[in-house]
Please model this.
Amino acid sequence: MAWQTLDPTRTLHAETCNMSFGRKDATCPRCKELLAGDSPRKGWSDKKRRQEQQQLEAIRNHDCKKAGCMIVCTFGDW
Model:
């Protein structure tokens, strides 16, 4: 099964790609590109990392006096 991509200009892994545990398949066109130095696609982990960074920034920039927090501030807690 070919892997899905959000970027249609990038090559997909072949149906017969046997890449596993980071070992590239020399017969797959996408693996050949990766072996030649092409960057990996951005995926959900990049989005998650960006969201976590924004959450940490919001917590650091939180001002209890302006927000009217009580004695115990729970801003940013899950």
Notes: Residues 46 and 65 are 34 Å apart (CA to CA).
